[in-house]
């Protein structure tokens, strides 16, 4: 059976490519999702995508993942990274491997971005590689998890 990956993006990542290109680059979320599907498909895996600006919608999608046969989650939780115990509990509650991705290097930015509630339950964390980090995470999930 093909590896089944869920790519999640949190609040404001729908704005990719439209503002702050110096921080987040010029690729749009549609570009990121298209490339993620291409990379997964080339490796014989399946990938579905979901973005929401709502914490509860992300948590509902995470809960549904288990019964849908998802094998691993790649997530950029956006600003919820630094605030959401609930998102962490949802991810740890379903027991699937998680890779956390940040486009920017959160450790070079404001102090409040240095702590992640997600990293402690993630198999791996990628930050600062721009949108290439999504591809690295997907490659890792397919080859190692
Ligand atoms: O570097 C990342 O990927 C972040 O997860 C992005 C979050 C930020 O709160 C995290 O600290 C780091 C913000 C996403 C907002 O994305 C935008 C994209 C374009 C324009 C405006 C916001």
Question: What would the average pLDDT be, to the nearest integer?
Answer: 97
* Number of strand elements: 5
- Helix percent reads 25-40%
Main sheet: strand order: 2-1-3-4-5
The structure class reads alpha/beta
What low-confidence regions span 5 or more consecutive residues with pLDDT below 50? none
Ligand names:
ligand CA2
How much is the radius of gyration in Å?
A: 14 Å
From the spread of the alpha carbons, the general shape counts as globular
N to C succession of SSEs: EHHEHEHEEH
Strand content: 15-25%
Q: Give a short account of the largest sheet.
A: 5 strands, parallel
Number of alpha- plus pi-helical segments: 5
Give the distance, in angstroms, between the N- and C-terminal Cα atoms: 14 Å
How would you sum up this structure, described in words?
The protein is built from 5 helices and 5 strands. With 145 residues, the protein is of the alpha/beta class. Helix content is 37%, strand content 18%. It has a 5-stranded parallel β-sheet with strand order 2-1-3-4-5, sandwiched between helices. Helix 2 (29-42) packs parallel to helix 5. It starts with a strand and ends with a helix. Bound molecules: ligand CA2. Ligand CA2 binds at residues 12-13, 15-16, 19-20, 24, 76, 78-79, 81, 102-104, 106, 113.
């Amino acid at each position: 059976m093909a590896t089944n990956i869920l790519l999640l993006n949190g609040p404001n990542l729908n704005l990719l490519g439209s503002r702050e290109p110096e921080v987040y680059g010029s690729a749009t979320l549609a570009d990121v999702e298209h490339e993620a599907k291409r990379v997964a498909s080339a490796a014989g895996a399946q990938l579905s995508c979901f973005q929401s600006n709502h914490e509860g919608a992300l948590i509902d999608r995470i809960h549904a993942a288990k019964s849908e046969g998802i094998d691993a989650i790649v997530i950029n939780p956006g600003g919820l990274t630094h605030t959401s115990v609930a998102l962490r509990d949802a991810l740890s509650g379903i027991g699937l491997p998680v890779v956390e991705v940040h486009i920017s290097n959160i450790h070079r930015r404001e102090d409040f971005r240095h702590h992640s509630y997600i990293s402690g339950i993630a198999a791996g964390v990628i930050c600062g590689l721009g949108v290439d980090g999504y591809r690295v995470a997907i490659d890792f999930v397919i080859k190692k998890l």
